[in-house]
Amino acid sequence: MQRVYAGIDTYLLNTALQAYTISGLVAEMGSGSAVQLITLANLNSDMREAFGIEIDARARNVSKFNLALNRCEDRVTVLGGSAALNNCLHGRPLDFAFSNPPFFVAPESVPSARRGKAINLALLCETSGYGGPDGLAVTREFVQDLAPLLSTHAGLLFYSQFACARQDTPLALVELPRVLPAKLSAWSARFEKFPVHTNLFDFSAEDWSRSLALMISTRHPRLSTPEVAAIESGVRDHFMRKELAGITSGFLEFGSVPRRSSIEIDDRDFVRMDELISNELACENAA
Ligand SMILES: C[S@@+](CC[C@H](N)C(=O)[O-])C[C@H]1O[C@@H](n2cnc3c(N)ncnc32)[C@H](O)[C@@H]1O
Fold first, then answer.
1. Rounded to 5 degrees, what are φ and ψ at 53?
2. Domain-located, residue 211
3. Which of 3, 11, 14, 31 to mutate to test the pocket of ligand 1 (most atoms within 8 A of CB)?
4. 170 pairs with which residues across the strands?
5. Which residues form the domain of 173?
6. Cα 278 to the chain's mean position, in Å?
7. Structural contact between residues 150 and 25, judged by C-beta atoms closer than 8 angstroms
8. Residue 208 · residue 247 · CB < 8 Å
């Protein structure tokens, strides 16, 4: 059973969002439990109204509960898709949109050790994780859905782990402007690496293949050892074929997103969050 998404990236994005000054109309793509929108509503009295778009019905239900609990339901609404967002906006443009999208970089499937069988990675990674062969499949969809709804003065922010051809240069910096419409093509784009002195979120192709295989095997304990090894080598081969050097973590901003301060993350908090998530995973496995 898939639980409503909450990962270490949830905590990290939540801390980072506190550095931004948000006003007007806001949308989050893939809003999960709505924790990010609740934080923004609490910190930004100038944020008039915010919308979360979430594909998972269970997460939308949890969001309703969280919004009521935090008394945000008059300013924040969670919807099932961008068509519903379009209806709610009544032609009013968005001032700010953001996302922590599914990003796992992996081929759709890899050959299994058992002849004639393929292992479907898109399925095993689940909706909260799989990002397609370059990690940007869902992010591209989000940009395309949002683009007609954004004001020309708006800001667009992605917090993600991005595939890079060279160390620390995300493909997304080149790929995403290609899907922005002409009215937004003059927007500046900038990438800022995550400000934590740990390399936990920066992976070489080798490390990423190993970590992804481990993550998938933790969530799917019935996979056999040869199947997990096939996932690791299949993902590593994919990185080599695509000439991808690895994964880097950070913020990709398009247009203007005002900040009240720089993004500060205490390394000790980071370690504490890591333990929290590991414990949570352990509980999930024990259940
Ligand atoms: C990495 S999680 C982030 C959740 C939340 N924003 C957070 O920070 O905890 C990605 C979320 O995107 C949702 N998602 C995946 N594909 C989607 C799509 N096409 N449209 C809307 N939501 C989607 C997933 O269900 C998941 O809740």
1. -115, 120
2. no
3. 31
4. 164
5. 8-105+132-198+247-286
6. 19
7. no
8. yes
Indicate which residue's Cα is closest to atom 4 of ligand 1: 32
Residue among 29, 38, 54, 104 whose CB has most ligand 1 atoms within 8 A, to mutate: 54
Q: Is residue 123 part of a domain?
A: no
How many angstroms separate the alpha carbon of residue 200 from the centre of ligand 1?
22
CATH number of the domain that residue 179 is part of: 3.40.50.150
pLDDT 10s per residue in the chain (287 long)? 557 888 888 988 998 899 999 999 999 999 999 999 999 999 999 999 999 999 999 999 999 999 999 999 999 999 999 999 999 999 999 999 999 999 999 999 999 877 778 999 999 998 889 999 999 999 999 999 999 999 999 999 999 999 998 867 899 999 998 888 887 878 889 998 877 655 567 899 999 999 999 999 999 999 999 999 999 999 999 999 999 999 998 899 999 888 888 877 776 666 666 565 555 544 444 44
Within a domain: residue 56? yes
Pocket residue to mutate for ligand 1, from 5, 12, 13, 17, most atoms within 8 A of Cβ: 5
Q: Is residue 53 part of a domain?
A: yes
Owner of token pair 């969050």:
273
d(CA 144, CA 179) in angstroms, rounded, equals: 6
Q: Report how far ligand 1's centroid is from the alpha carbon of 259 (Å).
A: 24
User: Would you say the CB of residue 59 lies under 6 angstroms from ligand 1?
Assistant: yes
Ligand 1 neighbour 63 (Cβ under 6 A):
no
- The total domain count for the chain is 1
